[in-house]
Structures are given as structure tokens and as C-alpha cells.
Amino acid sequence: MPNEPSAERGPWSLALRRFFRNRLAVAFLGVFVLIVLFVLAAPLWAEHVAETGPNEEHIVEQITVDGEKLDVVSVEGKPIGPQWFAADGKFFLGADGRLGRDEMVRLMYGGRISLLVAISAALISTMLAVVLGLLAGYFRGWTDTVIARVLDAIWSLPVFLIALSIGVALATGGFKLGPLELSGGSLIIPIGIISIFTVPYIARPIRGQVLALSEKEFVEAAVAQGAGPLRVMFGEILPNLASTVIVFFTLMIANAMIFEAGLSFLGAGVQPPNSSWGAMITTGVELLKVQPLLAILPGAMIMLTVLSLNIIGDALRDALDPRGKQRLDAALQFEAQAGATGTQGGAALS
Amino acid sequence: MKKLGSLIAVLVLAAVAAIGLASCGGGDDETSGGGQGKQGGILKGTYASFPDYMDPALSYTAEGWTAMADIYVPLLTYKHASGDEGSEVIPGLAEDLPEIGKDEKTYTLKLRPGLKYSDGTPVKASDFRFAVERMIQLNSGGSPFYIAAIEGAEKFAETKKGPIPGIKTNDKTGEIVISLEKPRGTFTNELGLMFVAPLPQDTPIEDMSANPPPATGPYVITKSQPGKGWEYERNPYWAKANGKAMPDLPDGSVDGAKITVVRNEQSQVDDVENGTYQWMQNPPPASRYAEVKENFEGTQFRVEPTISTYFFWMNNQQPPFDDLKVRQAVNYAVDDRALERIYAGQLTGSQQILPPGMPGHEEFELYPYDLAKAKQMIKEANPSDMDITVWTDTESPNNEAGEYFNEVLKELGFNTNLKILNADNYFTVIGNQSTPDLDAGWANWFQDYPHPNDFFQPLLAGESILPTNNGNFANFDDPAVNKKISELGEEQLGPEEEAAYAELDEEIMKQAPWAPYGNRNLTTFVSDEIEFDNVIFNPTFGHYLSSFEFK
Fold first, then answer.
1. Residues of B at the A interface (Cβ-Cβ below 8 Å)?
2. pTM for the complete prediction?
3. Which neighbouring-strand residues pair with B515?
4. What is the ipTM of this complex?
5. Average pLDDT over residues B316-344
6. Which residues of chain A make contact with B407, given a CB cutoff of 8 A?
7. What is the rounded distance in angstroms from the CA atom of residue A100 to the CA atom of residue B30?
């Protein structure tokens, strides 16, 4: 009897299978999922366990622990330490400082804000980078020159310092442009700043890949069949960039999270009384000698999240396109040799 | 063996001699008294923020006055002493305290002869009138004291065209005659403030913070980098001229100082502990206060009681705080026990304008904490504008006090937007009427001189509402109160006047322009290289540079 031919698997299915073979990536995917669940559970914990909101102050209040009344904040200004479940979950990780806010609740809500800012910024910068990369790589010529120069200009700036200066100015005065008005505490401000300043990190490699792909036969064939530039860019070239875009998006979330943490730590990102993990480190550093957990915990959350995303991103790259790294390197090389004017040249990609 | 023994003896003696010479050091050793006893050395100090201005006509903060106290000497000055003794007015550039005419409206002083600025320019009597006019032209926060008092000053303030007829000077004799519109019981004190310290008449009529004017005191500011720090050296004309003319003012032991702005207060404490800096001007942050007090009290650390009031101001001229009920509700909602904890025990709760220690202070409590009552009052008032911007600065624990106030207002149902400004320019920004959304915020006030008028006129009199450098943040302007402030200001302080001021305190607080919350202690904290007991903390000027000595 002849053997049954094996069922054909699609590329996405194969990629998924390759990903799940990577045990480290799977483990850190689990960590990331747990972090997301942790922050999503914030309202549940706040309402049913801690019975307080993230910004609610309990400065002069007392809680009962083993029949003993304890000040949330002592007269000398010392906040209560971690109570774990001794007070039925209230002040599980203690109070966040002299304002007597529940540290656990703030850690959870802070995580929501950190992830929201990071994911939003990564999404916006990826979308902008893809559009700019496609335009520059496909049209070449003056389009490529202008876009590439703008990206170079942003990349040549001391990005963090500029972002910090803008962040501080906008955090105080807010932003007003015509009908658009944002208060200083609006999250749109740090999201916007991080998005704009991280575009070049993705746009340049994508531009390189587009330059290479636009010389492929399938693009020539589409053009010969009468497809317009938009159809070619978004219908033919973009699907071939999917794996690159997905990987970059994942890595950019991690990058954006670090960026946001830095801005908030320096007072230019998320504004009080709201918390993000970066802003919580600022408060925690002041009490490092008294309550070290207040700085260590948000820092550890940032570290775990960023590490998870980096490992997942690397694994995704390997899974989606095993030769993707080589392609990417080649694309970057092609881009460098083609130069800013996008002229023909460079090694052809296999 | 004998030769070897001799050789060893010589080598040992040489080594001992070398060690001995090395330990003597030089006269300009940066970190010690130079091996020559207490004189000399360069003091390294730190502030958490740069002063509002490094210009004697403009500065109206504790940081600025501490920075310039030993630099600019007015006609009169304050005794270089701590506590109540430090509030005594003594002659400065003037030979003596003023001769006050029988009508109590004429003040005659005489400039000491032979005085010079640090650039060698002779000090002239007419420099005093120039300084007063310059201060008024710059719209200084201190100008209300003098505009209200001096004949013709009000017209000068409107037209900016001088000279002020109420100040007559004679450069040949050094005589200065000041005519007042009406008697003023506080004028002698006000002549001792730096606002009217004489300056050379070529001093530009602009903020000179980046290039401070020449000095008359024992030290001169030789370098000023706003936002970063500044440096002092000895005024070369102090030893040659001014110091001899003013023996009551100390020469100072250190040869100079280098002050750096270090915004991280934790670092400041660590740096003083390890000797990187010898002094920090501001108190340790609340999180380190107890630790520093426990480890260093009596040897390097001292609590300094102050005559001060910390408060939340509300803009009385804009909704929702133009409604008395709303303002009173806020007073009921502020819990001074919470603020005592925020200030880590450095603050004593109070709801009054006049602090303990100020003549006229009598305790009362109009608004005992009652959040439920506060919410009810807001409901009844039903303010039309529920969107409020709350202002505070970055220095701990003032930033937390501002966050606390922000949450209190939220509890009362307001939609708040918290703005936290750099401490360097906080008061400049909230004192500028063109800054949008000046609804409510944090502020404090320390005694300029030991007279209750100092807490009423600059902060709560209608005439003190200025377009820039405004100190009446509440924009409180009640004609009856203005009249009372003015009338009481004419009198010399006695028991009747003190009782009247106590009444005024309560009367104003019934209108609740502010929500005062307490009176604060400051500190002296120095490294172990400094002669701790010699450091003077003056109730008006804080630490005197001239009182620092290396051990």
C-alpha cells in the first residue's frame, strides 16, 4: 500500500510550530501573558481586595493588623510596609510614600499605563515607519531623499534629551494647536513623543527591504498588469514585509516601554498623580533606604516585560522567517550601498 | 652598623619631616581651613533650586535672601544673629538708625563716609534713591512696601518718571531724607530689606541674575549661572573700607564659596554626609529627615524654628473660588494632620495667617476638618466652573503637599489638572498674572521682619496685586481689610495693635482667601569640617555665609 502524502501546512502554521518549539520564548510568552493579566486585573483588585483607587490617599488612616491599629503613614512620615494578606490584602505591598496610596494598586494601574503608552507608541511608530518606508523605497528619487533626510535628522539628534525637553515643556503647559488641545497630564503627549522619535528605527530597515523587494519579478509583473503604486505597495510588497513588521512591532513595544520609563522617571512622561512604572521608580528612589521595594518592584516589572518582549521578538523573527535575519542584514547592506537617492545598486537578494 | 644606624635615623627623620610638612597644607586648601586655624577655605554648598532672582531688587524668596544676605547691605540691616536677636535692626551703610521726625513721616539718615562697591565705585547717598526707583521700575514684589509709604512713589510707579520727590539726598554730606505719605510703623524694618540696598547708578534696569551688581558686603558674587550655581569671593573693598566702617557686621572666615544647585535632595544629604559639600541650604527631604536628625543632631544638624505660614491659595477673583462658600469648604476639607505627615514632622498644623512667634498671633480654629461638611457646602454652592488647575513646585515635600491638595479638590468633586513646576521659577510663574489658569496652588511665606504687617500687606492687601512678581496669589482685595491693614501699618506696634492684628487674622480667615495648613521648621545641616556651633540661622536671611568657618 503506498504511503499517504503528508498534509501541507501553510506558512503561518509552520511559523507557529517553529515558535512553540522554542521553549525559552514560550516561557517568556507565559511571563508576558501573566504581566498583562496582572495589570488587567487592576480594577478587580482595587475594588474587591484593596478597596481603594490608585490615587486615593490614606495619609491619616489606620488599618488593623492582628488586632493592632497601624498608621498608614506615621507622624514622622514613614509609610507602612508590605502587609501581604495580614490586612485582608489592603496595602499588600505597603503604602507608596507619605501620600499613603496603596502600592499594589498603583503598581497594577501603573502597569496599565506603561503598557498602554508603550503599545500605542509602538503601533503608531510602526504604522508611520511602514508608510514612510514603503513610500521611500518604492518611489525612490526625491521622495526617498526627503524622507531619508528627515529620518536621518531625527536619528542624528540626541533623541532622549530632545524628547525629555519637549516632554517637560508640554507636561507643564500642555499642547495647543488649533482645535487640538491637550492638558499637561494627557497620555497622548508621551505617546506622541515616543512614536515620533522611534520611527527611524523601523523606517530605515523597512525602506531597505522595500528597495530590494521592488526590484523583484512579482512587482514588475504587477506593474505590467496595470497595478497602480498603492496597489503594488500595499497589495504586493507589504505582505512580504509582514514578518519583519511583526518582529519590529514587538521589539518596539519593549523600546517604547524603556523610553516611557525614562521620561516618566525624569518628570517628562506620565504626570502625577497618575502612575506608571517609570514614575513609581522616581517616588521609590526617595524612599530607597526606608522601603526599597517601592523602587525595586516597578523596576523589576519593567525589566521582566522588556526581557519577555525581546525574547518573544527574537523568537518570532526566527519562526516567521528563518532566513529573515540574513534578509534583513542584506537589506540594510543594500540600503547602505544604494544610498539616500535610492539609485540602483547593491547586491541582489537571493 | 653604626653607619647603617645613622643612615636609618636620617631617613626616618626625613620621612617624619616630610609627613609634617605635608600635613600643614596651604592657605587656599579647598577642603580645610588650610592648616592656619579657622580662617580661609572655600565653602562648597548646595541648594535644591536656584533662587528666583540673583538681584537684590527682585528676589523675594528664602533662597535668594540667603544667597545675597552678605553681599548687599542696605542703609539699615539686621543683626547677624539667630533667633529673636536676629530680628533687631541695626545700622548698615547708614551711620545710625534713622532720626524720625515728630510727625513720624520724616526719616533722616546719613551714609557712612568712604564706602565703596566691590568694583571700587564710591557709594553715594543718591544711590539709595536710584535703588528704590529701580526696584519700582522692575515691578519688584517688594515694591508695595515703598510705593504705599514714600511721598510721590505712587506717581513714580505709574509714570516711571523720577526722581521720587519723597527721597532727597546730598552726595556731599551723605544725608538722605525720606518723606512718607503718612506715618508707618514698619518703615524702619523695611529700610533693612535688600530691596532698597544702594546700587551703582549705572546698574541696568533689568534682571541682573546672570551678572549680579557690585557688592557692599563682605562677599561679592563673581559668577552666576542661573539654574546651575554661583560663586563668591571676598569683596576687596570690605577689608579696605566697608568693613572698618561697619564693625558690627562680620568679615567672614571663609575666603569664598562655590554653590551648586543639586536638585536631587537625596544626593544632597549623601554629599554633606561624605563631605563632598559642606552645607545644604534646604532641609533634608522628608524621607531622610528622621535619619539625619537621629545621626547628626547636635553635632552637624539642628532644627531651626521659623516664623512661617504654609498655605494653599485660591484665586478669589475667578470662579469657583470667587464664591466664599467654596473657599470655606476647601478649608474644611484640608486636614492639617495629613500635611504634618507629608512634612515628616517638620510642620505644625495651623489654619491661621499669623504664625506662632509673630506678634499678634492668637490661636483660633474656624474650620475644623470635616470632609462631609465640605462636600455639602460645595453641593449648596453649586459652582459653575468645576475645572481647576492646581499649581505646586518640584521640591519635596511641597510637591506632595500640592498632590494632596489636588486630591482634596477631587474629593470635593472638582476636575483638577495638577501642574508641577521647577522650583527655580515657580513663584515667578504663579506671580505673573498673564499665566493662564492660576486657580489654586501651594505657597509659603517666611517673616521678613517681626511685625504682623509683613504677613498682611504683601500677601493680602489689594495694593499688592501686581502684574508680575505678585505676592497676593489669592488676588484678595477687600476694601475694608485694605483700610485696616493701612491704618494698622501706620502705628508703632504695641499691645493694642497686636490685639487688632489678631482680630484682623480671624476676620480675613472668615473670608478664607487661603487654606493655611501650618508652620514649618527649617534646618542647619553641615559636614563635619564646619564649626557647627558658629553657623548662624537668621529668622529673615537664613544662613549667613559669613558665619561659616572650617574647623
1. 265-266, 285-291, 335, 337-338, 340-345, 394, 396-397, 399-400, 403-404, 406-407, 410, 417-421
2. 0.84
3. B312
4. 0.81
5. 96
6. 55-57, 99, 273
7. 44
